[in-house]
């Protein structure tokens, strides 16, 4: 049973509205009690969504803006052992700090009961907004009761790299379709046609988008690449498994859905007696730290985490102030970082790939065609 506060019960200390409007005037505009206005101002639950909206509308009518000093923003992220999530969390914290917002970073298993319990435990701590960073918002079949819990408390939230179904909360994402196009275009210009994709799990929003972008990019260049996509986990082990399967299909280049997967592909390529980039070119995704020190340094499509953090900072402050924000998803353009893991297609590698597809004695198609 949810905890509610009686209308006529003990009063909590309430921050007085800015400007000339009093609690009584705001209550009159919203047609509610002063106690209800107080609960909305202090982000307490026990207020229906319709009533909360009426109070928020009244606050906007009188020009009230919530002070944000020392208010908390809950940032839900997967494990910070992954360098890309650690860097994103740091940038988001830096973007919120100038507004007086304090970031509480929580590592969760996305889409699980653990995530929901974490949120439930912290909502009573004065949380002003929640940011889902590649959390349950990225998993199609996740337990989305966490969103219903947040909405029932009237806490504004936004998502990074994919939004929740049937939610109009703001979303900021790297343009994963464009990321796939950038990688394919670069490898195609180097002469590669047998390009494989190390894709993330089915039902993961960024992974699904990259598959769509990859297939479209290949199709626009006359290549049907359905058999050149292998799904796996985003880690190095997943990259090794997916790359091994694609090497058996005679690819000459690999596009990975994370830098960890790309490093796993390095291992598979070495085990096959091949080398990077002489035999197989590899492109990662994220631009994790220390990539300059891999052997060879990894070419990657970089997530623009600084620009994403700027959008998150702006949207979070707008939401906390009770102002309307656009309902369309903000897609931020990625960029390729060229290093030593990509190179031109070797003619002898193309010929060997063609023989591997049709057998020594069978007539076949032109070398390099799928």
Detailed description of the structure:
Residues 341-370 are annotated as: Disordered. Residues 21-74 form the HTH lacI-type domain. Keywords: DNA-binding, Transcription, Transcription regulation. Residues 358-370 have a biased composition (Basic and acidic residues). The relative contact order is 0.11. The strands form two sheets. A six-stranded parallel β-sheet has the order 2-1-3-4-5-11, sandwiched between helices. It has 370 residues and is α/β, with parallel strands linked by helices. The chain has three domains: 23-62; 72-174 and 306-332, Rossmann fold (3-Layer(aba) Sandwich), CATH 3.40.50.2300; 176-303, 3-Layer(aba) Sandwich (Rossmann fold), CATH 3.40.50. 39% of the residues lie in helices and 15% in strands.
- Classify the fold: give the CATH topology of the largest domain: Rossmann fold
Q: Radius of gyration in whole Å, from Cα?
A: 25 Å
Taken as a percent bin, the fraction of beta residues is: 15-25%
Number of helices: 12
Class based on secondary structure composition and strand pairing: alpha/beta
Write down the overall mean pLDDT. 84
* Outline type: elongated
Keywords:
370 residues, alpha/beta, Rossmann fold, six-stranded mixed sheet, 12 helices, 39% helix, elongated
Map the helices and strands.
Elements: H1 23-30, H2 34-41, H3 49-61, E1 71-77, H4 83-96, E2 101-107, H5 113-122, E3 127-133, H6 145-152, E4 157-160, E5 171-174, H7 176-189, E6 195-199, H8 205-219, E7 229-231, H9 236-247, E8 253-256, H10 259-271, E9 281-286, E10 299-302, H11 305-320, E11 330-332, E12 335-337, H12 347-358
Parallel strand pairs: 1-2, 1-3, 3-4, 4-5, 5-11, 6-7, 6-8, 8-9, 9-10
Antiparallel strand pairs: 10-12
């Amino acid at each position: 049973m949810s905890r509610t506060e009686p209308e006529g019960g003990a009063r909590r200390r309430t921050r007085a509205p800015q400007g000339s409007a009093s609690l009584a005037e705001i209550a009159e505009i919203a047609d509610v009690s002063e106690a209800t206005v107080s609960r909305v101002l202090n982000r307490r639950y026990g207020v229906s969504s319709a009533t909360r909206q009426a109070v928020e509308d009244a606050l906007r009518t009188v020009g009230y803006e919530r002070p944000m000093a020392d208010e908390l923003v809950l940032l839900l992220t997967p494990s910070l052992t992954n360098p890309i999530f650690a860097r994103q969390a740091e940038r988001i914290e830096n973007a919120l700090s100038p507004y007086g917002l304090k970031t509480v970073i929580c590592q969760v298993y996305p889409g699980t009961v653990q995530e929901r319990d974490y949120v439930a435990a912290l909502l009573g701590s004065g949380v002003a907004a929640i940011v889902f960073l590649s959390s349950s918002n990225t998993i199609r079949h996740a337990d989305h009761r966490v969103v219903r819990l947040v909405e029932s408390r009237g806490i504004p939230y936004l998502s990074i790299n994919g939004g929740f179904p049937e939610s109009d909360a703001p979303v900021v994402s790297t343009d994963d379709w464009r990321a796939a196009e950038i990688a394919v275009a670069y490898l195609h210009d180097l002469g590669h046609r047998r390009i494989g994709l190390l894709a993330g799990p089915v039902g993961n929003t960024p992974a699904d988008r990259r598959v769509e972008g990859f297939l479209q990019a290949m199709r626009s260049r006359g290549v049907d690449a359905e058999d050149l996509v292998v799904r796996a986990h985003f880690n190095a082990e997943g990259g090794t498994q997916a790359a091994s399967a694609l090497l058996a299909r005679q690819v000459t280049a690999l596009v990975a859905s994370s830098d960890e997967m790309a490093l796993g592909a390095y291992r598979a390529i070495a085990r096959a007696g091949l080398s990077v980039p002489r035999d197989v070119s590899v492109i990662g995704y994220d631009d994790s730290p220390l990539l300059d020190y891999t052997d060879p340094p990894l070419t990657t499509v970089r997530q623009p985490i600084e620009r994403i953090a700027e959008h998150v900072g702006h949207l979070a402050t707008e939401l906390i102030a009770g102002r309307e924000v656009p309902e369309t998803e903000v897609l931020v353009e990625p960029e390729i970082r060229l290093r030593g893991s990509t190179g031109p297609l070797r003619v002898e590698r193309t010929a060997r790939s063609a023989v591997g597809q049709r057998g020594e004695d069978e007539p076949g198609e032109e070398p390099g065609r799928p």
